Amino acid sequence: MWLIGRESDFNVGREVGLVPQMPWTQWRAYIQDVQRAIDAEPLNQINHRYLYGELRLPRLNWIY
Which of 13, 19, 29, 49 could form a disulfide with 55, with the two C-beta atoms 3.0–4.6 Å apart? Predict the structure, then answer.
């Protein structure tokens, strides 16, 4: 869900079968519903470099 930020990302995911066959507007509405249902508080405890993709999990484990 966080990897699909633009319609072009969505189209690539749809072409390779990673996301369902639905229109972009329907996908955006679905993701907005999911984001409202997620408890964002635990996400604040995750290193921002990991969320951004700069650090991979093994490296984070080694650092901490």
Answer: 49
What value does the CA radius of gyration of the chain take, rounded to a whole number of Å? Answer: 15
Report DSSP letters for 27-53, one per residue: HHHHHHHHHHHS--GGGGGS-HHHHHT
Contact between 50 and 57 under an 8 Å Cβ cutoff? The reply is yes
User: What is the C-alpha separation between 63 and 1, in angstroms, rounded?
Assistant: 27
Nearest-angstrom CA–CA distance, 19 and 2: 12
Token reading at 1: 């869900």
Query: Residue 51: pLDDT above 80?
Result: no
Largest separation between any pair of C-alpha atoms in the chain: 42
